[in-house]
Amino acid sequence: MSAGLVTGLLSALLPTSPLAPLPSHLPDVATRLLSALSNAFVPSLGWALLHFVWQGALIGCATAVLLVALRNARPERRYAVACLALLLCFIWPAVNLVSMLLDDSGTAAARALPLASAPAAVLRDAVDVLAWLQQHLDWIVSAWATCAAAFGLRMALGLVWVGRASHVRAASAQSNEERVWQTKLARLATRCGIDRQVRLRIVDSLASPVTAGCWRPVVLVPAALVTGMPPQLLEALLAHELGHVRRHDYLVNLVQNVIEALLFYHPAVWWISRRIRQEREQIADDFAARRLGEPRRLAQALSELERLQFSGHHLAQAAAGGDLTARIRRLVRPDPQALDWRAAVPVLGLVLACAASAHALATRHVPALAPTAGITRPAIADFSSCTKPQYPQADIAAGHEGTVTVNFRVDVSGVVTESTILRSSGYASMDEAARGALHRCRFVPAMRDGKPVSSWQPVQYIWTLA
Question: How many angstroms separate the CA atoms of 72 and 78, rounded?
Fold first, then answer.
């Protein structure tokens, strides 16, 4: 968005008259506001996306543990856990983004990025990685925005297709089969306790029945099922779809698609979302089985659907035989699920590989920070006493930016007694400003065996003009 466009919008929104002209300084204010927003938003968004890599992994692991513990509980409980986990995947980076934007909303200053205590050589490797990420945040955010837009476009095209397929037609334009099944669906909806009108449309290019819409729900039925499936079995599938209508599942699925589009790069998001859909289908199966009073009829309908999907050429691309087989087995023989430790082998192997890599890195170099050995709790900053290092005015005027990594020593009284520059920002004045801010900060000293000890800790300051 250009400054001229911003000025035009402000001119249209603010009341003007010959007696009250637009202030001459308003374009400069708009330009500075837009520049500050872009300079602060892109880095904050980039770091929020990068932080979600470990945040999403943590959420995914916790969700996996909870779902294993609830493997024999009602599917509604597992569904609630998975939905809360997916919502947390969105809320955590969003809160992180807002906090970083608020943190950068004041005067120009450096953003502190704490680093874990480690050997000096390992710290330099970590600093190099962080510095590379900081330099390429614009490209990272651009790539994310492009992919997210592509996923959003795909979702929008799907909504357009559903809207066209569920378009309201006059009664005279409906086929005889569609009118007959609309009447059956209305009676079945009444039996299921649904007092809203649920429309039915028969479409050709579809693999299985689909429910769309929330306030004006419509059930899309493949034409191949109407002609190739016994009516009593198709009625069982319609009862399953009415379960989705009763729970407004289409709305939840829309939220899922939005979160998938925004956080597409994390495997945990896709895994959690897939579990939500699996549990949702089980809930709808239970709803239909209770209303029909015949779980085996629904299982037979699913078996027939699986047969038609694999035998019909126009349905083969959307076949989901594996999921259908599991649902059929659950309806026919709902036995308790045993704990399968084989599923945890890949995760355990990944954890062991990461631990071995970390140990190799730690032992490959001689530790330069010996005073931190054996510390059970690192020094903790008293944030009420810490202030951001202020940008030197000369560096602001020259447009200098950079990243400085400082290693500092906290004594037993919580005072910073000395510090060294592990990596310079390239400008001595900015390096000294960061060191000066650290020396003014008070800490709760590190602990070893319950006693306060002096320790060395690193911190990284990112100088970015906003």
Answer: 9
